[in-house]
Amino acid sequence: MIEFASPFSIGLGAIIALSLLGLPIGLSMITGSILYLAASDQDMSIAAEQVLNGLNGSYILLAVPLFIFSAGLMNAGTMTDRLLGFCNMLVGRLRGGLGHVNVVQSVIFAGMSGSAIADAAGSGRIIIDMMKRGNAYPAPYAAAITAASAVIGPIIPPSIPMVLYALVADTSIGYLFLGGVVPGLLMAVAQMAINALMARRHGFPVSARVPLRAMPRLTADALPALLMPVILLGGIYGGVMTPTEAAAVAAAYAFLVSALLYRSLSARDIYATVLAAGRSTSAIGMLIAGALAFNYVVVSENIPQTVRLVLGGGEMARWQFMLVVNAILLVLGCLLEGTTILLVVVPMLLPTARALGIDPVHFGVVAVVNIMIGLVTPPYGLLLFIVAKLSDAPLGKVTRELLPFIAAMVGALLLIAFIPGLVLWLPRRFGYTG
What we know:
The chain has 22 helices and no strands. It is mainly alpha-helical. The chain has one domain (43-429). The two termini are 36 Å apart.
């Protein structure tokens, strides 16, 4: 039982109050942690010590700004446009073809950016305009499938959320990346099935077939972009480079292809991309700093052990624990920002998961998928607001169109959660022994 005036309640109350007043959650967590230290008569400099120690020893975190920057370069150049042309050649001729193109391009783009926001804000703008052209697809539907497909981005490697999970769980990034491949493809299949169903129900058009003579040109145009995930993942799993080094290679490759090969990147574009990447990195960095400070509070108060007792400790079966975890993360995803959940809530659940013998790679992929679904779940879902703005569609209508996709993704999530082999099959092919 938490006392009303205990140091923990003072710190937690400050975090909630400041967040409600509009202060960024990272700053709120730092402030609440300092208040906790003051109320418990501890040295307040411990907060700074926790932040500095956590960031100083985390070489892996360099991957975050580099992946953000590489995604920005791809969107600023014409790599995304060429990928869309290639995807349209593959699946555009099917009924509801542009919806399928939307999903397939997200699968391919996922192998480059690692960010759902980058996917939606970049290629999403282009594909929404394509779908709306000539009133072929209602704007709310175009926005809904764009938001749903963007969720795939951080599940298929590389993945910024998996980098953050590896930080808090001390787990191999390489095996986490491999663990996301099959779940990401499963999510894509589920979304394409819903799109096919909706296309038949609403009579969505069939796109014109791409002439056979145009296919080699479209493939050649997209080939440099298509090679990027091959180079990155081949380098990581071939032992040539670490995931952080792969992020640097991704940024360099995106720059060289966009600026020198496609000649579609101006100095103004580069400046805007650097600025946007800096802003995004600063926001994520502040969240990480707040989480590192608050995690000291959590450990000091034995919150993970309390959570384990509340959840039944060793008496709870694995499937029961996974069911509870999915319910908790899905509900929190409706209310909180995903990075906050990953850095603050997931570490509280990890000790119980380990005690029950749940594989950390499997648990991490399940947690990331939950958090990604939260990006499209009202009322907070950040992707909802982004795609509604891009499509000029009312938020309520976009949400209604999203419901079948959310249901399909939750169904895929349950398969991933209760059939560990879907996650662990590929890592084990590459030597994982967990």
